[in-house]
Amino acid sequence: MNTQYSNHKFPRVVIIGGGFGGIEVAKALKNKEVEVMLLDRNNHHTFQPLLYQVATGTLDAPSIAFPLRKMFRKQENFTFRIADVLGIDATNKTLDTDIGSISYDYLIIATGATTNFFGNQDIAHNAMPMKNVKEAVSIRSFILQNIEDSLLKTDTEERSAYLNFVVVGGGPTGVELSGAIAEIRNHILTKDYPELKKEDMNVYLVEGLPKILANLSPQASEKAELYLKELGVKVLLNVQVTGYDGDIITFADGNRIKTKTVLWSAGVMGQFPSGINPDIVVRGNRIRTDEECRVIGMKDVFAIGDVAAMITDELPRGHPGVAPVAQQQGRFLAKNIIRMLSGQPTEKFNYFDKGSMATIGRNKAVVDIGKIRFQGFFAWWVWMFVHLMSLVGFRNRVVTFINWAINYLTFNAGIRLIIHKYRRPERVREPVNE
Ligand SMILES: Cc1cc2nc3c(=O)[nH]c(=O)nc-3n(C[C@H](O)[C@H](O)[C@H](O)COP(=O)(O)OP(=O)(O)OC[C@H]3O[C@@H](n4cnc5c(N)ncnc54)[C@H](O)[C@@H]3O)c2cc1C
């Protein structure tokens, strides 16, 4: 066993994942008699709610990411390693990682979720997900590349494929992303590309359910749809995507759209290292926990946030996959670990739902806070304030605020850079048995 990372003066709490949940556990264990080790495959925390603004050129990537080492530099009991955790050996209390074996006394799995393509290999290969900074930057490049490429096509039909942008999934991410792409068309297209007309570009939002924002109130759903239509987004409801080959997206009703760009925000699934009993992996590939975030059947192993499913009679599908759940579970779990170490009784987790919101272009948002529901300009200010304050780091808040102000005043946020040309990865065909 590799013990190079430990003096073992205090019990070691190892956290896999420096996302919303993981960083809260680590912060709440500051100055406590534990050794905290955070492992993440990236060296930064990502503020996922604003990824769509990176994808559409309003913000640059560093505004929504924050280096994990900088975040914890004043925390003495803290160690960080860039590591991809591959497996959990609960019997020996060790982790198998790409930097070697790491031992733990308490393990917290806070590995979040990845994109769910529901097993469709063609869509997985050709559509673009948006779960991290790299993917958001690729989307930005690809949108710009396709507009550039459209100028080289003389055939109208052929050109339209480069200027049709299809977003799949009518949750908050799909709504925000399609709204922001529509704003590019409405305010930027003809300025940057005088050869093109607004009508040349189409933005579609495809949703399998009869309404968008299905987890919000009916008022929020209706208003969001209206706002998107005002922006010129073509909202297709009750439409199931059946395939996408990189040129044409097909639907179960037989319709199809020629498009080079399909952005996939239609589903997520938990991701975690091997070593978890498949019997406790539930819907959405999430790990079942008890009400104290303890992984069922595993000693001293806990799961929080998007990867965890705390299933109770009141919550048969667990908590929603949103940042406040991960954050509250992180803080709760840190307190429970301290209670365990000091021999005090542990407590059960209670989620405090602060509400949901989504923005749909400038001046427009929908907000549900319990029974209080409002939409429009005031909702948009609330959305901006909440997101600005939630960003990690003073610099990020200032830079984001300045970018938003410039964008608001000029209709022209400027981060339309193609830094690396995006190319679809080569497809490795699975061998076909004769
Ligand atoms: C585009 C988008 C928009 C969103 N908008 C909102 C919103 O407006 N409001 C809201 O409340 N929620 C929103 N969410 C959901 C929210 O971001 C998640 O609920 C939240 O990030 C969950 O936190 P987490 O700690 O469980 O996981 P994450 O924040 O995803 O963190 C997981 C971390 O684990 C690391 N990791 C994963 N596997 C390994 C491994 N094997 N080894 C090492 N490291 C690993 C990852 O690198 C990552 O840093 C959005 C999500 C997305 C993708």
UniProtKB/TrEMBL annotation:
Keywords annotated in UniProt: FAD, Flavoprotein, Membrane, NAD, Oxidoreductase, Transit peptide, Transmembrane, Transmembrane helix
Catalytic activity line of the entry: a quinone + NADH + H(+) = a quinol + NAD(+)
Domain External alternative NADH-ubiquinone oxidoreductase-like C-terminal: 354-409
Transmembrane portions of the chain: 377-395, 401-419
Domain FAD/NAD(P)-binding stretches: 12-330
GO terms of molecular function: NADH dehydrogenase (quinone) (non-electrogenic) activity
Domain of life per record: Bacteria
Keyword GTP-binding: no
Pfam families in UniProt: NDH2_C, Pyr_redox_2
EC number: 1.6.5.9
Homology family: Belongs to the NADH dehydrogenase family.
Protein name (database record): NADH:ubiquinone reductase (non-electrogenic)
Organism: Parapedobacter indicus
Phylogenetic classification of the source organism: Bacteria, Pseudomonadati, Bacteroidota, Sphingobacteriia, Sphingobacteriales
